[in-house]
Specification:
Layout: E1 2-8, E2 12-19, E3 24-31, E4 43-44, H1 46-60, E5 69-76, E6 82-84, E7 94-95, H2 103-122, H3 131-141, H4 143-147, E8 151-153, H5 155-164, E9 168-170, H6 171-174, E10 180-181, E11 186-187, H7 189-194, E12 204-206, E13 211-214, H8 217-223, E14 230-232, E15 235-236, H9 237-244, E16 253-257, E17 261-267, E18 279-282, E19 288-294, H10 298-308, H11 314-318, E20 330-332, E21 350-352, H12 360-384, E22 391-395, H13 402-412, E23 415-419, H14 424-436, H15 443-450, E24 453-457, H16 461-481
Helix pairs in contact: 1-5, 2-3, 9-14, 10-12, 12-13, 13-16
Length: about 475
């Protein structure tokens, strides 16, 4: 039997074909355009997502007995606003997770409605990347489009709708909208009223591993699959990545080094960070998790290597980095503003501490260290709550660098584990599809049976101490520069 996981990312959709034993049979990736209409804005056309997913499925299943495909599920970029009209047509390009245009609306929610009330209603405060501020922005700046809204969806759920005709969303992804009462797993009527959202616009809610429907005849014909193929709700990309690394059950930790960076810590019960530095979200296994999110992680390295150095030889650039813990240069990784812990879309990146003998390698090292320090900020928020993991799995494109993993292990002072299948959200989505089909009793059983650790990077006590001293300096830099950059 085969299961398909679809990871709807920011720059591409990645499709994973997995068998019932957890072995990956094929992987396909299809890119699409990311648009920046103005500084700090980020949009995509949902039709591009669908077109590339259809093309990707055709390539993924070429030469495969399609009758053996049993279920499909999703991991996807979170928070994006997809608005549909009365005919279920897309009204405007989707406003993405890394779009910072809604700062005024975010301030209104946090300062007028109040962080305390927001936390009571949703478990979280407002961030510019969340969906609710985007809705308020659309109401104010595009009233004609807002008046046409009849459905509000998240990015991956648009794909699920095109496959099933069902307007659905899972709890993990819905947690990042600021419209969900996360504790009670239901839409918050008061938040919908605050945002002028009608409940009829909202999708039906499911656990990530639950089936939302099957392929109707038209979709089955288009995709070349049986109409009996099950579609499972799926999860937000970070929750799906956590499933893909076996980060399920209580007190587990996963680090993601993708376009954005996240620290993801599971918990069996709902809780809230008193400082609101960490998000309190539902998890794809049916429980909950804390998450710290930085908006630019591996994208910092891609920016530095591709746009600034104009090289594609990432590995060669890293060969000159040898003196870990002794770099005099710091990098603030705020290329797109920042979420955790600063909640400041106006924050900007900076190199600090350069001198005449600063080298090219020093600057790249500072980029790696800056991202790791940013993750450490979220870890410190968790530690202040008494949540102190000693081990973490790691996934995402940045996790392929042994050097970066070493830096992260020592800056966070954690044992960092990699898993055999490093496909993060796509693999997690395929596991959720298998659970929805009954191949496993639950998500924990699936991960216990098929997710395997392939290696561990341990922190060195001497190096960890050096980085502890450097972190104490790093955490002073943002407050000192706030309002200047």
């Amino acid at each position: 039997m085969y299961y398909v996981g679809i990871d709807l990312g920011t720059s591409a959709v990645k499709l994973v074909l997995m068998d019932e034993k957890g072995s990956v049979q094929h992987i396909v990736s299809k890119e699409y355009e990311l648009r920046f209409p103005q500084a700090g804005w980020a949009e995509q056309d949902p039709e591009d997502w669908w077109a590339q997913t259809v093309a990707g499925l055709e390539d993924l299943l070429a030469g495969v007995d399609k009758s053996l495909v049993r279920a499909i599920s999703f991991g996807g970029q979170m928070h994006g606003l997809v608005a549909l009209d009365e005919n279920d047509r897309v009204i405007r390009p989707a406003i993405l997770w890394n779009d910072g245009r809604s700062q005024e609306e975010t301030d209104y929610l946090n300062q007028v409605i109040g962080k305390k009330r927001l936390t009571e209603l949703t478990g979280n405060i407002a961030f510019a990347g969340f969906t609710a501020p985007k809705i308020l922005w659309m109401k104010k700046h595009e009233p004609e489009n807002f008046a046409r809204i009849r459905r509000i969806m998240l990015p991956k759920d648009y794909l699920a709708y095109r496959m099933t005709g069902v307007h659905s969303c899972d709890y993990s992804d819905a947690s990042g909208m600021l419209l969900l009462d996360v504790r009670n797993k239901c839409w918050s009527r008061e938040m919908m009223e605050i945002c002028s959202v009608q409940e009829s616009w909202m999708p039906a809610l499911f656990e990530s591993y639950e089936m939302t429907g099957t392929l109707p005849p038209e979709a089955a014909k288009l995709l070349g699959l049986s109409s009996s193929v099950k579609i499972a709700a799926g999860a937000g990309d970070n929750a799906a990545a956590a499933v893909g690394t076996g980060t399920v059950g209580p007190d587990r930790c996963n680090l993601s080094l993708g376009t954005s960076g996240t620290l993801f810590i599971t918990t069996s019960t709902f809780g809230v960070d008193p400082a609101n530095a960490l998000h309190s979200f539902a998890h794809a296994d049916g429980s909950f998790h804390y998450m710290g999110c930085m908006l630019s992680a591996a994208s910092c390295n891609n920016w530095w290597m591709t746009d600034i150095l104009r090289t594609s030889d990432f590995a060669a650039e890293q060969e000159e980095i040898t003196a870990l813990g002794e770099n005099s240069v710091y990098f603030l990784p705020y290329l797109m503003g920042e979420r955790s812990p600063h909640n400041d879309p106006s924050a900007r990146a900076a190199f600090i501490g350069m001198s005449m003998d600063t080298s090219r390698a020093d600057l790249l090292q500072a980029v790696f260290e800056g991202v790791a320090f940013g993750l450490r900020d979220s870890l410190e928020a968790a530690r202040s709550m008494g949540v102190a993991p000693e081990t973490a799995t790691i996934c995402g494109g940045g996790a392929k660098s042994p050097l970066w993993k070493t830096i992260i292990a020592n800056i966070l002072n954690l044992s960092v584990q990699t898993v055999e299948v490093e496909e993060g959200p796509g693999y997690g989505a395929a596991i959720l599809a298998a659970v929805s089909d009954g191949a496993f009793a639950n998500v924990e059983e699936a991960c216990r049976k098929i997710v395997r650790v392939s290696g561990t990077t341990e922190p060195d006590p001497v190096l960890a101490e050096k980085y502890q001293n450097r972190y104490e300096t790093f955490r002073k830099l943002y407050p000192a520069l706030k309002g200047i950059l």
